[in-house]
């Protein structure tokens, strides 16, 4: 692991390959490998002790650099020789749904993979249509990571209070349980600014 960390820190091509393997979108992986600064919060020492970050934009703004900031944090974990995985919430939901019909896998396998990676980034929280079943799966992931003291990073257009309102439409008790765990173990980080995709 130390050798991986050393290579990731000194070899840009190797670093980019490792970062891409985490699921960081290629356009972010390239910018991170080239040393483009994060638009918001960088690696936080809190992450090393199981805490996470909840990165959101005021007024549900888009394109403010939340995902790029999350990618920087995940890349920093890779540089330090730890494992990281980044996926948008719809991709997380799709993996869970696909596992239900896969004889070679199971929903438990997907949850376990997400629960055990050193850092999990769930990008674009609030983009998945919420059903009671999906909400229970999200709770399982959040709860398992909380129990294992694994840092999780969330990005969203919405504040956590707004996300709780959205989740509550499917199940108020589960919504409260998820929000409680996220709020108790994640530092909120607000990133404001123009839509960088249009600048």
Structure description:
This protein has 199 residues and is of the alpha/beta class. The protein has nine helices and five strands. The chain has a five-stranded parallel sheet with strand order 2-3-4-1-5, sandwiched between helices. Helix 7 links the parallel strand 3 (119-125) and strand 4 (152-156). Helix 2 runs antiparallel to helix 3 and helix 5 (89-100) packs antiparallel against helix 6. It is globular and about 45 Å long. The relative contact order is 0.18. Mean pLDDT is 80; it is low at 1-5 and 39-43.
Topology record:
Elements: H1 2-10, H2 12-21, H3 26-33, E1 52-56, H4 66-79, E2 84-88, H5 89-100, H6 107-116, E3 119-125, H7 132-147, E4 152-156, H8 160-168, H9 172-185, E5 186-190
Parallel strand pairs: 1-4, 1-5, 2-3, 3-4
Helix pairs in contact: 1-2, 2-3, 5-6, 6-7, 7-9, 8-9
């Amino acid at each position: 692991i130390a050798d991986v960390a050393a290579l990731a820190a000194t070899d840009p091509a190797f670093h980019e390959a490792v970062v891409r393997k985490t699921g960081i979108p290629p356009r972010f992986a390239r910018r991170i490998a080239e040393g483009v600064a994060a638009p918001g919060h960088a690696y936080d020492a809190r992450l090393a002790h199981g805490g996470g970050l909840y990165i959101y934009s005021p007024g549900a703004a888009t394109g403010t650099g939340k995902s790029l900031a999350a990618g920087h944090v995940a890349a920093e974990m890779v540089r330090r020789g730890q494992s990281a995985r980044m996926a948008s919430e719809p991709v997380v939901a799709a993996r869970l749904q696909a596992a239900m019909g896969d004889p070679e896998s199971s929903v438990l396998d997907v949850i376990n993979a997400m629960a055990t990676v050193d850092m999990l980034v769930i990008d674009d929280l609030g983009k998945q249509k919420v059903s009671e079943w999906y909400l229970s799966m999200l709770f399982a992931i959040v709860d398992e990571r909380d129990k294992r003291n694994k840092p999780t990073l969330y990005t969203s257009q919405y504040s956590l209070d707004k996300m709780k309102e959205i989740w509550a439409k499917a199940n108020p008790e589960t919504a409260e349980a998820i929000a409680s765990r996220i709020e108790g173990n994640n530092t909120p980080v607000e990133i404001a600014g123009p839509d960088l995709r249009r600048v």
